[in-house]
Design brief:
There is one protein chain. The protein is α/β, with parallel strands linked by helices. Helix content is about 55%, strand content about 10%. The chain is built from 14 helices and seven strands. The radius of gyration is 24 Å and the shape is globular. About 15% of the residues have low confidence.
């Protein structure tokens, strides 16, 4: 054993590993010093507070619970929550893989079923009591069940699929969309129906041993960062994370995402404007189908365009930091595209389609209402609930 420990390669290996660890620590300290000297000292705390608030109200990926362990594939909806995941043991997941109470197969006469459809904003909205409480005020004699047909990154075609399955049991349908559809429009080479990254992440884990082994290694590195780099949101730690995520994404794209994406490619002879227009027409198409089947079963239907921080809000300092800090999105493109999409969709009112804008509901509010680039604070969700129900209460005359 002693001879083994004195072998030169052992010392070289230990020296290299020690140097690596010291370099990481030096990077961390260097970045922390840099930001403390050249930036407002609240910069890191703001980022941390915002992220913590968002994680408390939604199941984001974390070091201990990567997103691919929280979801499972679904043949109709692309992906849903994995009710058997230990990461979600404290959450109420129904048999559909959605959060909340079970969807009914038989409509009971004394119950009033409200279906809330959308993406992560709708999912978070349904997690608070405010919408149900506001609805109870206008339906005081009804036993209201708020069914949350929403999931992170879901788009309108997934909402339509769920609606078509359960419309006969519903008494009211509320759709809250806009942002996820806009994100898709900003990459118009693919059809609107292309599943988002969450879908391919699960496929990759199940199909690629190399990615799985790398993820185990990076999970250990996550724990090391947590224990030794002092702060997750510091730039040193983020630099490491971005580097390794780019490596994983390259492997994912070549193994799974590229073949998946190819199935949804639009005709390459179409120019960008034609592709954009096609996907906008698809958004409108799913809106019309949703309204049509609701009318057929005599179920009141309301479509709302969700508010976004890039439009019609006097942002405070924290909110400005959020909007300006979007890594994958140009703020100007964000603002221009969402404005254009919302104006186009609101033109459907001319066809007597029940669509309403909530984009300006925070226009006169100075306080923070956004917890990140799209999700709201608790006060924001309370005011959003009130705005939705006020529209319904008025009978939504177009």
């Amino acid at each position: 054993m002693q001879k083994f420990l004195h072998r030169p390669f052992v010392f070289k290996t230990l020296a290299v590993f020690t140097t690596f660890l010291l370099t990481l620590i030096a990077l961390e300290l260097g970045f922390r010093t840099y930001y403390s000297l050249s930036h407002n000292s609240s910069w890191l705390n703001v980022g941390y507070d915002i992220a913590s608030q968002a994680r408390n109200s939604f199941s984001f990926s974390t070091n201990d619970c990567p997103f691919e362990e929280q979801i499972v594939l679904d043949p109709d909806l692309a992906y849903v929550w994995n009710k058997d995941s230990s990461c979600l043991k404290d959450r109420v997941i129904n048999k559909l893989g959605l959060e909340g109470e079970e969807f009914p197969d038989i409509k009971k006469p004394d119950d009033f079923y409200v279906l809330l459809l959308g993406g992560s904003v709708a999912h978070q909205l349904g997690g608070y009591p405010y919408l149900k409480e506001e609805l109870q005020k206008i339906y005081p004699k009804k036993k209201i069940h708020l069914l949350v047909g929403a999931h992170g990154s879901w788009k309108i075609h997934q909402n339509f699929t769920l609606l078509a399955r359960y419309i006969k049991q519903m008494d009211l349908v509320i759709m809250l969309n806009g942002f996820n559809e806009m994100i898709k429009l900003m990459n118009p080479d693919y059809r609107l129906e292309l599943p988002t990254i969450e879908y391919s992440t699960v496929l990759t884990k199940k199909s690629s041993l190399s990615v799985y082994l790398m993820s185990l290694f990076y999970k250990e590195l996550d724990q090391w960062e947590k224990n030794h780099l002092m702060h997750f949101w510091s730039s040193g730690a983020m630099l490491i994370k971005r580097t390794r995520l780019s490596v994983l994404d390259t492997i994912q794209h070549s193994k799974v995402k590229k073949p998946l994406e190819d199935r949804y490619l639009l005709d390459p002879t179409m120019d960008r404007a034609q592709k954009f227009a096609y996907n906008v027409s698809q958004v409108k198409h799913y809106y019309h189908l949703s309204y049509l089947i609701s009318q057929n079963d005599h179920v009141p239907f309301y479509a709302f365009l969700q508010p976004v921080p890039a439009l019609k809000k006097d942002l405070n300092d924290k909110e400005k930091l959020i909007v300006n800090g979007i890594k994958y999105l140009s703020v100007d493109e964000y603002r221009t595209t969402y404005h254009g999409l919302s104006e186009t969709l609101l033109e459907m009112k001319k066809e007597k389609f029940p669509i309403y804008s909530l984009i300006d509901i925070f226009s006169k509010i100075k306080e923070q209402r956004y917890s990140d680039h799209i999700h709201l604070t608790q006060e924001g969700y309370q005011e959003l609930s009130s705005a939705i129900v006020q529209t319904i209460k008025k009978g939504a005359k177009i």
